[in-house]
Structures are given as structure tokens and as C-alpha cells.
Amino acid sequence: MKIILTHEVSGLGTAGDVVDVKDGYARNYLVPRGFAIRWTKGGEKDVEQIRRGRKIREIATIEQANEVKGQLEGVKVKLAVRAGEAGRLFGSVTPADIASAVKAAGGPDIDKRRVEIGSPIKTLGAHQISVRLHAEVTAKVGVEVVAA
Question: Dihedral (C-alpha) 86, 88, 90, 91: value to the nearest 10 degrees?
Fold first, then answer.
């Protein structure tokens, strides 16, 4: 099935790309979650609009990405969450939580879709997460999760 990606999908492409995927993957995962729309002749007009929006948001050069990486790695991020007595969280820390905590700590504004958490953060303490800024640049950010 031919689809138009509306968001970046790891291993598949970036927003505005027209790709061929298996029918079930498109129908059951990509389209319901809003990562893609079905390709149509009229949808080709949407591709240009999606690409223009992507160019505005994306970090264009490696130099810009390295500059943002330096800013991110210099920020001390502390995230206050609700936790039980044993240090286990009620729920887990999401990429959106981390993106807003970085902004609140005085760091650059980052897109939550670029935050990559290896395994779900469900305990208090220090954790390392990565932020994919560019195809070749990834920043490591230390996040300290504390009880609220």
C-alpha cells in the first residue's frame, strides 16, 4: 500500500515521504496513530505542505545540530513525578515529559518525537536518554527523576 508519512518513522522515512508498506502495517499501525495518510492523487498536494512544515521545524545542518547538542548536554534536567514509597513511579516518564522538562530547565525547545528512551523510566534516580537531532548527531541527556 502506498502511503504519505506525516511524521518521522524510524527505519521508514521522514514526513512528506511517499513509501510502500504492507497493507496491515499501514492500516493497523501507521494510519490510526496519525503517522501516515493514504496516498491519493489529491494527496500529492499535501506532500508539499508537509515538507514545508518539516523544513521549518528541522535542524538543517550538522553545525546547528552540534550547537543544540552542546546546549542539551550542558543542561541539568530534574523531573518531579509522583512515586510510591519504594521509589516506583505511578506510570512512567514519557518523551513529552522529558521535552517539557528540558525546556523548563533552560534548554532548547526539542520535539518530543526526537526523544528516544531505551527502556521505560519507572523508577526514581538518574537516567540517560538520547535525543536524535540530526541523522548523524545524537545528544545524550542526563535526567534525574525525583519524587514530587
Answer: -170
